[in-house]
Amino acid sequence: MAAASFAGMLCGQSPPAPTHDLTGVWMLRNPASMRAYAGATFTKEEPELTPWAQAKYKEAKASNNGTYTLETTNDPVLKKCDPPGVPRVYFHPYPFEFVSTPKYTLMLYEYDHMLRRIYTDGRSIPEDPDLTWMGYSVGHWDGDTTFVVETAGFNDKTWLDRLGHPHSNQLRVIERFRRIDRDHMQLDITMQDPKALVKPWSTTFYSELRPKWELGEISCSGDYLDFSKFEK
Q1: Is 82 contained in some domain?
Q2: Which of 106, 139, 144, 231 lies at a CB distance of 3.0 to 4.6 Å from 149, suitable for a disulfide?
Q3: Position 152 in a domain
Q4: Closest by alpha carbon to 150, among 170, 124, 132?
């Protein structure tokens, strides 16, 4: 249903997608049918959690549903300004940009200067990578318009979403950025984590090119980011 709704956005007949190129500033724009949940989590249905993850999830005190305030939440992003990690970074309502180089593709997120380096030189993810907030990413093209990114090497300090679904350092995220035409992109996300998820958790998000936009400076610690105003 979401894909059908998104197809309706394409009635403007955007020119075809360029080959092997995601360059530019993009903004998430999911169909209305997804907006009841897509601002906080990936699917209407709960993921199947392992007993370990269920216990961790019960400890989460998410603020987005109004149950907890900024003073009582334990959301690491809101409480400590921790980096959001992947794929939670997509729940921040700010644009992101792709910049391509011969060795890697950069993903620049307007939110808190987040950066990902996605290696495209044929290397594999190290067997024992350093554990980081945003992980270690490698990418390749599948056909002319789909960029496939695999990321691992995460620490376990982030949530998968704004509701507090946990993950371990065994998390592996696969993203498929498919440029439907010049101005529209489909993002398929699959999360795999044998310690936290009984089976992979998958979703599809959508975004639009913003050719006239430039990324600004949004800092988690900035005075202009007063989350308390969002709760009123």
Answers
A1: yes
A2: 139
A3: yes
A4: 124
Per-residue pLDDT of the chain (232 residues; tens, 9 = 90+): 455 555 555 555 799 999 999 999 999 999 999 999 999 999 999 999 999 999 999 999 998 777 899 889 999 999 999 999 999 999 999 999 999 999 999 999 999 989 999 999 999 999 999 999 999 999 999 999 999 999 999 999 999 999 999 999 999 999 999 999 999 999 999 999 999 999 999 999 999 999 999 999 888 876 544 544 443 3
- Radius of gyration over alpha carbons of the chain, in Å? 17
Give the DSSP letter string of 74-87. --HHHHH-----TT
- From CA 232, how far away is CA 223, in angstroms rounded? 17
Query: What is the CB-side half-sphere exposure of residue 111 using CA atoms within 13 A?
Result: 21
**Bond into 87 cis (ω within 30):** yes
Kindly state whether residue 228 falls inside one of the protein's structural domains: no
